[in-house]
């Protein structure tokens, strides 16, 4: 494992390039997330947000540039994917829970298989992470018995059970009704308050303003404007002005 001695960043991207065929999706993207920081990745649909997030967890390989995540050189072909994915939790818009497993089984699967936890330890852990997302009573339920918001909270709990050093969220509330969105955002807000390092792709501007330490506005595969949450109220580029003005 390659260490990055020059930085305390949990995640850092430097001049990252990524194309799909002839379509350049990431065109020299750089940003960093320090320990305990919340970074909100915003921008219009197609601007490259999900691709940037997927590169961090190596679901996509970059064409150029450097990505360091918890000391792992993600851009290198010899990156230890197993170690990387123990440090990084990722939650998508669709919940991706295994439908044929109970919530408890969904949560204990990876800690047992990947971390070698004993079944009893994993079950204790499942209770703990479900309490964190307010779903203790759903331990033995199946995903289809849960609302969308509850499923998303269970998916977050499943990620937390791996005790990641950083959590990535990709529009985790965009498939939910406003009421269910609020309960999921509350869980994320609590994680932030507890000091979890997070990179969050979101369309919830009010939420981003409230909890993000840093905003990265992407436009056409580039970081077009970045800064503290106040850039959402005082944007300097016409593109961000338009983006926040139109409620994206
Ligand atoms: P965002 O999350 O900001 O909406 P994405 O990162 O999903 O943007 O996509 C950026 C661009 O890359 C889009 O034009 C999308 O169609 C394209 N794209 C994303 N993934 C793939 C893929 N696997 N193959 C081809 N094109 C892709
Ligand atoms: Mg996306």
Distance, first to last CA: 40 Å
> What is the CATH class of the domain at 9-93 and 165-203 and 212-244?
Alpha Beta
Order of helices and strands: EEEHEEHEHHHEHEHEEH
Major sheet: order of its strands?
Answer: 6-7-8-3-9-10
According to CATH, the homologous superfamily of the domain at 9-93 and 165-203 and 212-244 is P-loop containing nucleotide triphosphate hydrolases
SS summary, helix count: 8
Evaluate the radius of gyration: 18 Å
Structural class: alpha/beta
Query: What low-confidence regions span 5 or more consecutive residues with pLDDT below 50?
Result: 1-6
Q: Looking at the structure, what is the overall shape?
A: globular
Question: What is the mean predicted local confidence, pLDDT?
Answer: 93
Domain ABC transporter: 11-245
Subcellular location: Cell membrane
Keywords: Amino-acid transport, ATP-binding, Cell membrane, Membrane, Nucleotide-binding, Transport
Pfam family, one: ABC_tran
């Amino acid at each position: 494992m390659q260490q990055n001695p020059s930085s305390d960043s949990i995640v850092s991207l430097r001049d990252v390039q990524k194309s799909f065929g002839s379509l350049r999706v990431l065109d020299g993207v750089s940003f960093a997330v320090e320990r305990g920081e919340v970074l909100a990745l915003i921008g219009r649909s197609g601007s490259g947000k999900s691709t940037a997030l997927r590169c961090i967890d190596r679901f996509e390989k970059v064409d150029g540039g450097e990505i360091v995540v918890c000391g792992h050189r993600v851009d290198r072909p010899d990156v230890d994917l197993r170690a990387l994915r123990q440090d990084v939790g990722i939650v998508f818009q669709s919940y991706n829970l295994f439908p044929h497993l109970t919530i408890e089984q969904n949560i204990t699967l990876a800690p047992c298989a990947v971390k070698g936890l004993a079944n009893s330890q994993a079950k204790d852990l499942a209770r703990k992470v479900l309490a964190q997302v307010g779903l203790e009573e759903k331990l033995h339920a199946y995903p289809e018995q849960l609302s969308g918001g509850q499923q998303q909270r269970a998916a977050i709990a499943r990620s937390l059970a791996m005790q990641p050093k950083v959590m990535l969220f990709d529009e985790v509330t965009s498939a939910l009704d406003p009421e269910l969105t609020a309960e999921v955002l509350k869980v994320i807000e609590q994680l932030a308050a507890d000091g979890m390092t997070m990179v969050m792709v979101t369309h919830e501007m009010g939420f981003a303003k409230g909890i993000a330490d840093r905003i990265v506005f992407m436009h056409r595969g580039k970081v077009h404007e970045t800064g503290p949450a106040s850039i959402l109220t005082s944007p300097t580029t016409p593109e961000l002005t338009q983006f926040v003005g139109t409620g994206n």
